[in-house]
Amino acid sequence: MHFNGLDLNLIVALDAILTERNVTRAAEKLNISQPGMSGALNRLRQYFNDDLLTQNGKQMIPTPLGAALSVPAKEILATVRSRLAVQTRFLPQEARRSFTVMVSDYAATIFLASVLRALSVEAPGMTFDLHQYADLPSEALEAGRIDVLLGPQQALSQNHPFKPLFADDFVGVACADNDAVDDVTDIEAFLAMRHVLVRLGGSGLPTTDATFLERSFSRRRIEVIVPSWSLVPHYLMGTQRIAIFHRRLAHDYARHFPLRIFEIPTTLPAFEECVQWRASSRGDPAIQWLVERMETHARMLDTVSA
Length: 306
Prior knowledge:
The chain is of the alpha/beta class. It has helices spanning about 10-20, 25-30, 35-50, 65-85, 105-120, 135-140, 185-190, 210-215, 230-235, 245-255, 285-305, and strands spanning about 1-5, 5, 55, 60, 100, 125-130, 150, 160-170, 170-175, 195-200, 205, 220-225, 240-245, 260, 270-275. Helix content is about 45%, strand content about 25%.
């Protein structure tokens, strides 16, 4: 099928090439030969009268036009998939879908693991590719590199729908034999202790607690910075260090590590985990079903915690 002289099958190739930035990997992704993908790239270059990708050392980088076409190509394909999905009755037990989900190890641990455990029975044909937080999670969603984003509202895009899932608050954590915590009577004493700090993504995105404390109080004494929540307990063991943790995660990890959980001598803002998906997926019954299942499990999470 053609539109204005463009073979619409080439949009699939365009998306793969601009995503992978490598002809061989793009061919493998679409399960076609490397010469076939090279031919598709040549036809795209002729149609757009642009190289689309150029060699830069050992890497291929998109031209300005190539970069500008990346998001529209993904949106077109997402819209087509969504419309086609509406034409058929969605049956979770029979569905064959793969979802790419961006999620922090916090939500992956205390929430998503139980969701996917249930879905392995309810929808055995579904697969999930979990990605760690990127520097700009909302951009990954906008660009179509992920299908679903789990995170606090401030990490979400303003251009796509989302739903709140569950709330959490923050506590202090330390090694069980860290007696220095007994001397923490006010926020200044708390900030003066030796802290382990979490910063997410390649450039170290600040977490909700860190953003609030940096804006409201004097600087903390940061001794260790780690890229994920799951590493924190390892850097507390056998030391006088402390850290700020989500309450749910603190109690989960306390089942595996000798942790001491204590209240922080100030009130931190409430934290709300949300799920977001692309606006072009509104009509996709599989996405809507997945979001609904997440909402159901979030309510169960609150019931268990109550």
